[in-house]
Design goal:
This protein has 293 residues and is of the alpha/beta class. The strands form two sheets. The protein has a six-stranded parallel sheet, with helices on both faces. It has a three-stranded antiparallel sheet with strand order 7-8-9. β2, α2 and β3 form a beta-alpha-beta unit. α8 runs antiparallel to α9. The longest helix is centred in the last third of the chain and has 22 residues. It is globular, with a radius of gyration of 20 Å. The relative contact order is 0.13. Bound molecules: pantoate. The site of pantoate has 10 residues, from β2 and α6.
């Protein structure tokens, strides 16, 4: 196992990165809010395979939480994160404090428009402004060549890509597949909030996505309303579940579709008790025939 360095001081971190750049090392970066699980570890492992050095950031970013959201209770375990990051092949854990990232007088924000005003952006106003601001700062501090993001936050990947493109940031964004439990539940730090009964209810997210996949690929159903109705029915017998949204969109523009003619991205956000979970499934196009409903 590599020796994992841990730094929170921005100046010291930048000095180390300068040394790495001078030595000609490529740097892969995995931004996280900590409480690392196998999903994060899969990003770190991939970054370690593709770069000389891997940095993992652990920072629960207050800017991306709404006033009613779980910033205060978000799970934190820096010691466990050190172990898991090291196991997966990280070289540096960057874990700054809020005061270091947002010192007194901090007043500059990065906002991406368009791609942020739907889906998560519609339910969580200000969320993506917090994400783009912190990720831009982390890119500036850590100067990676490549940054790895989980496809579970599919809209976040699209937003970060737009920011990088629009602001000419010299970093390649690498989306990585969703990692699931054996029963299908997408790995998430927020799964720790679930009681045993809620966990069972949460399985309905991936089950509804699987159902949609079967309806599209086996039954050739392409009418989005019909698919959404079938997915919604998966939750009707689960009192612990409350659907926030189910959307079927173009995977690039994230614009909602009426009929599936090629690839599509199916996304959903569902409250299980008080915990809001998201999940999604990309269906690769195979030239579906349009079926009039
Ligand atoms: O996906 C996350 O954990 C966060 O949104 C990120 C990218 C680390 C920014 O705080």
């Amino acid at each position: 196992m590599k020796i994992l360095q841990q730094l929170n001081d921005i100046k010291a971190t930048r000095a180390l990165i300068k040394e790495w750049h001078q030595a000609g090392y490529s740097i892969g970066f995995v931004p996280t809010m900590g409480y690392l699980h196998e999903g994060h570890q899969s990003l770190i492992t991939r970054a370690a395979a593709e770069n000389d050095k891997v940095i993992v950031s652990v920072f629960v970013n207050p800017l991306q939480f709404g006033p009613e959201e779980d910033y205060g209770s978000y799970p934190r375990d820096l010691k466990g994160d050190q172990q898991r990051a090291a196991q997966a092949g990280a070289d540096l854990l960057f874990a700054p404090t809020v005061a270091q990232m947002y010192p007194e007088g901090f007043e500059t924000f990065v906002t991406a428009y368009g791609v942020t005003d739907k889906l998560e952006g519609a339910t969580r106003p200000g969320h993506f402004r917090g994400v783009t601001t912190v990720v831009a700062k982390l890119f500036n501090i850590l100067q990676p060549q490549r940054a790895y993001f989980g496809q579970k936050d599919a809209q976040q990947v699209a937003v970060i890509r737009q920011m990088v493109r629009d602001l000419n940031m010299p970093v390649t964004i690498i989306p990585c597949p969703i990692i699931r439990e054996a029963d299908g539940l997408a790995k998430s730090s927020r799964n720790t909030y679930l009681t045993a009964a809620e966990y069972q209810a949460a399985l309905s997210l991936s089950q509804s996505l699987k159902l949609a996949e079967t309806l599209i690929q086996t039954d050739n159903i392409v009418a989005v309303e019909q698919l959404k109705k079938a997915m919604t029915a998966c939750f009707s017998s689960i009192p612990l579940a409350r659907i926030d949204y189910i959307k079927i969109v173009d995977p690039i523009s994230l614009e909602e579709l009426a009929v599936i003619t090629d690839s599509c991205l199916i996304l959903l956000a569902v409250y299980i008790g008080k915990t809001r979970l998201i999940d999604n499934l990309l269906i690769e196009g195979r030239g579906y025939t349009k079926k009039e409903e």
